[in-house]
Amino acid sequence: MYLPQSMTALWLENQTLRLREDLPLPEPQTGEALIRVRLAGICATDLELVRGYYPFSGVAGHEFVGEVVQADGFPTLVGQRVIGEINLSCGKCEQCRTGRTRHCENRRVLGIKNQNGAFAQYLTLPTANLHPIPKNVKDEAAVFTEPLAAALEIQEQVDISPKDRVLVIGAGRLGQLIARTLQITGCGLAVVVRHAAHKALLDKCGIRTLKEHEIQSSRWDCVVEASGNPEGFQLARRAVRPRGMIVLKSTFKGENVLNLSAVVVDEITLVGSRCGPFQPALNLLAKHEIDPLPLVEGRYPLSQGIQAFKHAGQPGTLKILIDPISPEHSQY
User: How far is CA 289 from the centre of its chain?
Assistant: First the structure.
């Protein structure tokens, strides 16, 4: 297969994105694969990186579908469509030795920390991070694997049953997926919404929605905060019952104000929740138990990546996709 000497990518530096056409093709190291990116998704973390959430310079993007073009020692991978887990662990530190590889002390994170990401024509990842995509899962659905896995992580950390009253704060990109995964548990579920379009999507799934003023204080067994802003945590704190649980999914630039004394008095459990299991997410997509396609609001070629980010940053916008191999026009 012909491989170019350079590639096009969206480059982030000093909180500024620019399109570059002069980046060298990434070279896979031992145990890594070279992957041609077929599709990538913009998430809230990407938008926050531009705002300065973490001091990252390089190619952003961690939600992707790709095709393996080179994998020395793994010939059966070549030509396969894959998605990839975003944490690159060292395998040697205490966290890795005790099985907490996502919290590796030396980890790199695709498009977030010391590893160029998916808003490019090519990327590299360890072959151990790759998952082949089932044939019946389209690229447009598979690109949701990483955020869907993050949604499923909640159920890895918290035992949720049909008797539990669960409130999700935030009905955006991640909140929509969280709600769909929690619905499967049969819990007493409701989602706080601000935008009519978000409510309509949840209504179609048969998921109850609430306005902020309709939330009863101190009534919910578990509150999942996925709003992406500090106000969401304050609302979660008001909604959760004594000895209840708050699951924190938001990442954003800036700090949050937390009254720890009130948390102690009410004996609230706080759970930080980040990345999740990829294979269960792929299984849900393959079985068509969750359909993320209605969440797609736009698709842009890589050459229009700056415009794609502007679109994604508009309030209420759901998933915007970047396509490195599409014709030179946007679809939305």
Answer: 19
